[in-house]
Each structure stands twice: as structure tokens, then as C-alpha cells.
Amino acid sequence: MNNYVEYLKEVFSEFGPIQPRRMFGGYGIFYKGLMFALVADDTLYLKADKTISPYFTDRELEQFSYEKQGKAFKMSYYMAPEDIFDDLEEAKIWADRSYGAAVRSKKPKKKK
Prior knowledge:
The chain is of the alpha+beta class. Helix content is 29%, strand content 34%.
């Protein structure tokens, strides 16, 4: 695990214990089994949905995207605001919002 991802455990200490998992050349950041953030190139992106995306867009935070076969794909994650790295309470607020988005986006399990 890289130092940046280890550092995020401190950043989110007020929020709760996070579980980073290596995936897609970066890391998924999980809490209670749900991915609420991701790390790509040592940049933190937080999960968003239509309920909370204005918090990100109002600050002009960049949406996570990747390229595949020459096409750009945007995901429902936005760059985390810089102030969460200096203020654990602020980090908790943003993590709570993003975890809420992850909960809302969770698809119910299909019954057999």
C-alpha cells in the first residue's frame, strides 16, 4: 500500500475505519463494504450522485474520467476538496456525503 493511501486513514479517522483495496491500477476506498472514494495517481476522488454533485461542481472540482479505446468515460466521482486534508471534521462531512451517495446507488440484490 502506498504512503498516500495510508495517509488517507488518518484523514478519515473522524469518519471511521476505511479499507483501501487495490483495483484498476489505483485503490478503491471502502467503508462498511461500500466504495465511497477512489485513488488514481495519488489523487483522491469522492463518490457523488445528483443529490450531492452540486457540492463538487460549485467548487469546480474535476470529475474523474478515464479513456478506453479512444473514448473518454466519466464516473460518478469528483476530486476531493483540498481543505479536507487539513481539517478532519471537514473530511468527515465530505466522507459522510460520499458514503451516503454510495448507499443510495447500491443496487438491491435480486431474489432467486
